[in-house]
Amino acid sequence: MAINTYGAVEENDPRVATPAPVHSTYSEEDTAAQAGPSLLEELGREAQRDITRTIRYEVKDREGWEVEFTNNISTDDYKRYQNAGTKNGKKDASQADLAKIAGMPLVERNTGIYRRGQLVTDQKGDPITFRSEEFLEMFRVFTALDAVRKFLGDGYTISLANDLYKQAGFNEDAAIVDPKNA
Predict the structure, then answer these.
(1) How far apart are CA 9 and CA 125, in angstroms?
(2) DSSP for the chain?
(3) CB 119 within 8 A of CB 127
(4) pLDDT for 14-48, tens place per residue?
(5) Domains of the chain (ranges, CATH numbers)
(6) Whose C-alpha in 11, 98, 143, 175 is 20 to 30 A from the C-alpha of 124?
């Protein structure tokens, strides 16, 4: 290459070096790895994730006391609670025992009772729950449902159950997404 009178480079001038070709040191796999997981891989990871959570509530009218539950309630559980709360198998809502319908998930999903943030345990170190013999004995009742109702009161039993159902996804407002803004 040579430079002509107009300042342009002409071919075959030994003073001008030709740049060496650039070869990529990254393969297509490396490029994909740098870009992150694919949407399908992300969905696969999400499928493995457990969506069960624990929720802790303060106990109304019992200062410093808290109760904790798992939100893992299936539709079969939900149906079973509803059926158990009806008298003589009738489906009439006016015949339903609301405290029983509400108390059952609280009894079954209770993971612990807390005093000022500390888990209450038995002599062996196991968490005290609504199903624990010690809990039933303290409230002088024979069933966990009766103990829950005595500990929380019927109104608060229903309120907690309603929120626990919501935390499990029942009666939850679904979020609508506008695909144009997604």
Answers:
(1) 86
(2) --B-TTS-B-TT-TTSPPPPPP-----HHHHHHHH---HHHHHHHHHHS----EEEEEPTTSTTEEEEEE----HHHHHHHHHHTBGGG---GGGB-HHHHHHHHHHHHEEEEEETTEE-B-TTSPBP-TT-HHHHHHTT-SSHHHHHHHHH-HHHHHHHHHHHHHHTTTTPPPPP--TTT-
(3) yes
(4) 555 555 555 545 555 655 556 788 888 888 988 88
(5) 66-167 (3.30.2220.30)
(6) 143
Output phi, psi for 86, to 5 deg.
-95, 145
Task: Give me 169's structure tokens.
Answer: 């996804």
Residue 67 CA to residue 57 CA, distance in Å, equals 5
Identify the burial level of 131 via C-beta atoms within 10 angstroms of its C-beta, where 0-12 means exposed, 13-18 middle and 19 or more buried. Answer: middle
Q: What is the pTM of this model?
A: 0.69
HSE-up of 76 (CA within 13 Å, CB side)? 0
Give, to the nearest 10 degrees, the angle between helix 154-167 and helix 98-109.
60
